[in-house]
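Standup notes
- DV: blocked on the single-chain target, sequence here:
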Amino acid sequence: MTVLANSAGLWGQLSNLTFFLCAVFSDILPIRVCLTLGYLFLLISALTGFPDFKQIFFNDSLGDAGPLYFVDTAVWCCLTLPFHAYAVFRCLQDEMKITFDEDTEKVWRFFYRRSGMGRLELRRVIKNASWVTVKKGETIIDGNRNLQYFFLIVEGVIEFSSKYQGITSTPRQLRSGDFFDMKLGNLFGVNLGFNHDVFHACASTDCTLLMWSFDDMNAMATQEAPAISSYWRSMILFSVSHELNRLHEGMTLVGAEDTQNIAEDPSWMQGGISRDFTRPIQAEEQLKAPGILPFLWRSFGPFPPKGLRHHTLPISGIQARTRIAALSKAQIARKNQIMVEARNATFVDN
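- DV (later): unblocked, structure below
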């Protein structure tokens, strides 16, 4: 004879409800919150003997024999619950307000305007960056240090040239808001090219630069949250197109424009800082946090869209090939640099 068990009590019903809600949300935060609550209610249910709807809170069916515990279920809940709770903590911490010092705030405004990068991602991007001051006439990158560093010009003017297939390019200038050596941008999966054999850059004025090592750029491309590499791709593509637009004859009359299509200050041509660093964030540029109900409604998504798990920088395929090729070239350049330095050291000793 088939016997139907009584319906679960309060803790069991709450556990089932929160596990169900995991299936109807698409945002990782409410999913993890529901999983945390689900395992918490399941743990309480196991420690109260899985009461049914008549007992509601506590299973006292054994009477004087003592309380009833389901140890295996409680152990599994204790093992699983901390991981979900930590994920909730991590997600909530990511949404906390982040403040920067004045210099870092300028850098964030620049990255935000040109790539959409948030404060959390900028904090990681600038974590291992170094502020570098270069005097007029000093060499920044010589032919023996190719592909080892990536620079952002905050203030100043630099002049660069490159050699490819034995042909040296005409020297050109870069100013505030420009990056170099753009060949390192290939690490983020877009085949930008810039296949020079030698790259040389020197300061035409006193310069303030932000510098990242090759290893840090590679880590941001492969080992950090996917949003960071996506923002970097947007930034690099913006920079390439921005420089290309400046080549138009009409644009040479004003020098360059900022992200609001307003001409840069005339001092920009002599090395002044770009308006995208200094101009305060305007009302129309502000990110507005949604209320709790709009957030939950936007997070509602029981049917995932196609391609949900697809990554913007996969471990195989054309983008991965581009990144790996850039990595290989940088490693070869590094070995060549070490060999040159070793030969120079030997020559000096002799």
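- Follow-up: The first helix runs from residue 10 to 24.
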